[in-house]
Design a protein that fits this description.
Helix content: 25-40%
Order of helices and strands: EHEHEEHEHEEHHEHEHEHEHEHHH
Strand content: 15-25%
Largest sheet: 6 strands, parallel
Radius of gyration: 20 Å
Strand order of the largest sheet: 2-1-3-4-5-6
Distance between the termini: 7 Å
Shape: globular
């Protein structure tokens, strides 16, 4: 198959640190094709209106249609980018974060697009909207090398790990990083490891200095072996004010589970359904300090049970069956193997 993969997010400043690009590369290597960057700038910017995404490479897109079998679009939520209406080959559109219940796509999107979702919440919503074709494919990560690692023994501090770093100042609030810092201020026995990605570092440094946390927050601002970091922490955190902000199943949280580390997640993430059902961590109902404090305290009280459940849950998110499901889906749409 020759699939044209549309990359609608800015490329990571630190190569290899963006989960969306990791997934695209895995699909390309498994199914065949090319990744075409379509974000108008080489860096994140909230000032670029979504309707112009892809238009700067319009003629290249049309030229590539002669040789490709299928278009594959991966984006945080369901958005009818205008350039998609000009394409003639089949379009698979994967929602990475979540559908916005208040913004159903227009009729031409619902009838033309082959929609792929990674959670049952979005599957039900898309079917309610009347999408012509909706497929659920469970997400997965490369579990190679992930083994169960014993957590740091007491009486060492309780260490949290947080990824999905902010791209903008506003995201310090929207992704709960301001809350994490306030939590540390109130609990001297907590420590935090941040997986950063090259943006907003000056803002981060000012915040940590102002709150007196420079010695209690470790910032990893380069590509690193996540397994080494997981060996030094007790749990991983993923917070979001709404369901379009983070991937529904962030890689850092799935990797945490694979290593036997419980997770603390916002209710807005679809992963929260798995966490609640499997009891492999805690769900934060609202983006408030009291809710986060309660979740961390609860996890610490029931840590051994949650860690055992995390071990079992993490093995369910294997990339191999995910890739096989995508291959099957692409064959259905192209008639090729």
């Amino acid at each position: 198959m020759n699939i044209l993969f549309h990359a609608l997010s800015p490329p990571p400043r630190i190569p290899g640190t963006d989960a969306a690009f990791q997934d695209l590369e895995a699909l390309r290597d498994s199914c065949g094709g090319t990744i075409l960057p379509l974000f108008p700038l080489p860096f994140p910017s909230r000032w670029i209106p979504r309707p112009i995404y892809g238009l700067h490479r319009y003629f290249e897109l049309r030229a590539r249609e002669h040789s490709c079998d299928l278009h594959f679009v991966a984006y945080a939520t369901g958005y009818a980018f205008p350039y998609l209406a000009t394409l003639r080959k089949p379009i698979c559109y994967q929602v990475l974060a979540g559908l916005d219940p208040s913004a159903p796509p227009p009729p031409h999107f619902r009838t033309r697009i082959h929609l792929i979702v990674n959670n049952r919440r979005d599957e039900k919503l898309a079917q309610k909207w009347g999408m012509a074709d909706v497929r659920y494919i469970r997400p997965g990560i490369d579990l190679t090398g992930f083994e169960i690692i014993p957590p740091p023994p007491p009486p060492k501090p309780f260490v949290l790990l947080a990824g999905s770093a902010p791209w903008t100042r506003e995201q310090f609030h929207l992704k709960g990083f301001d809350l994490l810092f306030d939590l540390l201020v109130h609990h001297p026995d907590l420590r935090l490891i941040l997986l950063w990605r090259g943006y907003q570092r000056a803002t981060l440094n000012r915040l940590l200095h102002r709150k007196g946390l420079t010695t209690r927050v470790e910032v990893i601002d380069s590509k690193t072996d996540i397994r080494t970091l997981l060996a030094r922490c007790h749990a991983t955190v993923g917070l979001a004010a709404h369901n379009r902000l983070l991937k529904a199943y962030p890689h850092s949280l799935l990797e945490s589970l694979a290593a036997g580390r419980p997770v603390i997640v916002s209710e807005t993430l679809a992963l929260a359904d798995d966490v609640r059902a499997k009891q492999c961590g805690e769900v934060v109902g609202s983006l408030t300090l009291s809710a986060l404090d309660s979740a961390v305290s609860s996890l610490r009280r029931q840590y051994d049970r949650a860690a055992e459940a995390a071990t079992e849950t993490g093995r369910e998110f294997d990339r191999i069956p995910m890739l096989a499901r995508f291959q099957e889906t692409f064959r259905d749409y192209t008639g090729k193997s």
